[in-house]
Write a structure and sequence with these properties.
It holds the Pfam family OATP. It is found in: Cell membrane. Keywords: Cell membrane, Disulfide bond, Glycoprotein, Ion transport, Lipid transport, Membrane, Transmembrane, Transmembrane helix, Transport. The protein is mostly helical. The chain folds into three domains: 39-143 and 183-299, MFS general substrate transporter like domains (Growth Hormone, Chain: A); 339-443 and 541-667, Growth Hormone, Chain: A (Up-down Bundle); 447-537, no CATH class. Helix content is 59%, strand content 4%. It contains 26 helices and seven strands. The strands form two sheets. Strands 2-1-5-4-3 form a five-stranded antiparallel sheet, with no helix packed on it. A two-stranded antiparallel ribbon has the order 6-7. Helix 3 runs parallel beside helix 6 (186-200) and helix 18 (417-436) packs antiparallel against helix 25. The longest helix has 64 residues, at 2-65. It is elongated and about 85 Å long. The protein starts with a helix and ends in a 17-residue tail after the last helix.
Length: 716
């Protein structure tokens, strides 16, 4: 038995065990190294791409946070600010087709790295006007400036004002006009944002497709969700940075801050908007460095080596294997290749319908996000600093959590394409339904004599140009174009001390107090005729309404963002693999051109129609708006309220997008079929309904082969 045992052992050692052992160890170690290389490479790229998404989101959100600052600094209306904001999308438009079409054939990581450098150059250019234009000038009555001369606000006798002082002041204004007339420094902001758009172009189409190409199929949704979640962290820091810079005076470091007579609560206040762009530019440079050291290709996972389509895509994209590469082998001219791709892509009904739904929804969301700081400032009387802080710390995290939740739900419950369409539709429907409730959470207009109320305390219903003058200030030499608000003891704001009929003042700068104001004394509830610098605060109910607004806004942001990742997966899985990069590029192009460019412009034009008081430029002409009609039910005969325009436009667009989303779901359901009808004519495809319950997410999404479609192929 011992000899037999030894012989058997020797026999197996020499002839069987050792050779098989070496081969298995070699294959196992090779597979292990390949798996580690694949996982390690894609995770490094994932980290680098996440940081780039953070950088571009930070600079983009910081621009949103400085919309009102730029508007006041360059004295331009909201519609022109919308053009500046839309220039980012114009930059995308210039090269996105080239990047999307040829990017997949080139070194994708290095193209992304070059884009980061261009993006940082544009960010630096936006900040440059601060160093070339003069110091910021705001409207102020001469007596509020540190001076030993006490001038009566109501200039009944113009000889009270020293002639030399008026002449000097007029000379300075004329000199400033000569300098400002030939310069429109806001153009540099527009060009810088345009350059940012060019640099940002390759990040999304090349980065997302790179992950989808080399990631394990079941992890792709989670990876994309992670990237989008990190991208939302960027706006958190962007708005917080905007909040910090809004507290600092625009010319900090260049002027004596003690001489500044306005506060952050004043509508003429401009923060250090340029400082954040310098910080964002440095971050963009750092974000692009890793991509210069990443490889052009990564090893594909074992599950994707045997087929060019994912297991789920094969259920939706059914085509003859013999003809799959034949057209591209025969087509040698680039124009014919582009034509073939375009026909395949635009013949896909799900892609077209989802594209339409996304375009309209992004019109709604881009317009809402762009002017949300302005809406909060005007509707609830908050400062720019507090507004940006609230959006960054409360609202944006809800969006990040919603996007991540969408990706997590997709992975945990193994939701397929049909389920992704349902989840995306549901989030949009309930999100816009919640947004409808914000109509009941507005504040009434601030009481501004001559604008929202008359000088006797009644609601104003006539044009302000005739209403700013009254019997109480008829003896004063006042200008209707001035905006230097004061707050009367009666709680009413007056456009200027002159229009309030004030006869005397005491103190200087921010501490100026006005006395013997004839218009303050004639007000119905007035018991005194004095006033102080700055506008009055809104009503007592407004802070409570602001809290309600924040709660609903957070829930709405979360609900809408849950559908973000399912929408991406729906987009990626409803197209052929070789069209993936091209389809994402066209999708991004359409969003940029038809939503990103026009939405801020027409939202801005619509918001400008609610303006009650326009500022005046130093050299004449209309400047930035000083006061909007923020009443929930406007009493003005020639104005819509800000809430109706801002919220109403958002809801109308959102409702239209929901109809297109319903159409997407209808087409997907129409192409689905029972398990026994999924066999093809030649029997090459199996049934979709014979797998375990674990795979039901695929079964419900299986489509009929294209007996109803031309060329015997599904266009999904």
């Amino acid at each position: 038995m011992e000899i037999s045992s030894k012989e058997n052992t020797r026999f197996f050692s020499n002839n069987t065990i050792l050779p098989v052992d070496r081969t298995s160890f070699k294959s196992e170690s090779s597979a292990s190294r390949e798996k580690q290389s694949c996982c390690g490479g894609i995770k490094i790229f994932l980290g680098a791409l996440s940081f780039v998404y953070f950088a571009k989101a930070l600079s983009g959100s910081y621009l949103k946070s400085t919309i009102t600052q730029i508007e006041r600094r360059f004295d331009i209306p909201s519609s022109l600010v919308g053009v500046i904001d839309g220039s980012f999308e114009i930059g995308n438009l210039l090269i996105i087709i080239l990047v999307s079409y040829f990017g997949a054939k080139l070194h994708r990581p290095r193209i992304i790295g070059a884009g980061c450098l261009i993006m940082s150059a544009g960010t630096f250019l936006i900040a440059m006007p601060q160093f070339f234009m003069g110091r910021y000038r705001y409207e102020r009555f001469p007596s509020t400036i540190n001076s030993t001369v006490n001038i009566s606000p109501c200039l009944q006798d113009k000889s009270q004002t020293p002639l030399t002082s008026l002449e000097k002041s007029q000379a300075k204004i004329n000199a400033g006009c000569e300098k400002e007339a030939g310069s429109s420094m806001w153009i540099y902001v527009l060009l810088g944002n345009l350059l940012r758009g060019i640099g940002e172009t390759p990040i999304q189409p090349l980065g997302i497709t790179y992950i989808d190409d080399y990631a394990i199929e079941e992890n792709a949704a989670l990876y994309i969700g992670c990237v989008q979640t990190v991208a939302i962290i960027g706006p958190i820091f962007g708005f917080l940075l905007g909040s910090l810079c809004a507290k600092l005076y625009v010319d900090i470091g260049f002027v004596d801050l003690d001489s500044i007579t306005i506060t952050p609560k004043d509508v003429q206040w401009v923060g250090a908007w340029w400082l954040g762009y310098l910080i964002a530019g440095v971050i963009s440079v750092l974000a692009g460095i890793p991509f210069w050291f990443l490889p052009k290709h990564l090893p594909k996972p074992e599950s994707r080596k045997d087929s060019s389509t994912s297991s789920e895509q094969s259920k939706f994209i059914i085509e003859d294997n013999k003809d799959q590469h034949k057209p591209f082998q025969q087509q040698t001219k680039m124009a014919e290749m582009a034509k073939g791709k375009s026909l395949d892509l635009f013949g896909n009904p799900v892609y077209i319908l989802y594209l339409c739904a996304s375009i309209i929804q992004f019109n709604s969301l881009i317009g809402m996000v762009t002017y949300k700081p302005k809406y909060i400032e005007q509707q609830y009387g908050q400062t720019s600093s507090k507004t940006n802080f609230v959006i960054g710390l409360i609202n944006i995290p809800a969006v990040a959590f919603g996007i991540f939740s969408g990706g997590l739900v997709m992975k945990k419950f193994r939701i397929g394409v049909l389920g992704a369409a349902k989840l995306s539709l549901g989030s949009s429907f309930f999100g816009y339904l919640l947004l409808l409730s914000l109509f009941a959470m507005g504040c009434e207009n601030s009481e501004v004599a001559g604008l929202t109320v008359s000088y006797h305390g009644t609601k104003q219903k006539t044009d302000y140009e005739q209403a700013v003058f009254s019997e109480c200030n008829s003896g004063c030499s006042c200008s209707k174009n001035d905006w230097d608000p004061i707050c009367g003891e009666n709680g009413v704001t007056y456009i200027s001390a002159c229009l309030a009929g004030c006869q005397a003042s005491n103190g200087s700068g921010k501490n100026t107090v006005f006395f013997n104001c004839s218009c303050v004394g004639t007000f119905e509830s007035s018991q005194s005729s004095s006033a102080v610098m700055g506008p009055c605060q809104k009503g007592n109910e407004c802070p409570k309404m602001f809290l309600y607004f924040l709660v609903i806004s957070v829930i709405t942001s979360y609900t809408l963002s849950v559908g973000g990742t399912p929408g991406y997966i729906l987009l990626l899985r409803c197209i052929k693999p070789h069209l993936k990069s091209f389809a994402l590029g066209i999708y991004t192009l359409a969003i940029r051109v038809l939503a990103g460019i026009p939405a801020p412009v027409y939202f801005g034009v619509a918001i400008d129609t609610t303006c009650l008081k326009w500022g005046s430029k130093r050299c004449g002409g209309r400047g930035a708006c000083r006061l909007y009609d923020s009443s929930a039910l406007s009493q003005m005969t020639n104005h819509f309220s800000l809430s109706y325009v801002y919220l109403g436009l958002t809801l109308v667009l959102g409702t239209v997008s929901i109809f297109f989303s319903v159409a997407v779901l209808w087409v997907l359901r129409k192409r689905s079929s029972p398990p026994d009808e999924t066999l093809s004519a030649n029997g090459e495809r199996g049934t979709c309904g014979t797998k375990s319950r674990k795979d039901n997410f695929v079964n419900s999404d299986c489509l009929i082969q294209s007996t109803y479609w031309p060329e015997k192929e599904t266009r999904l």
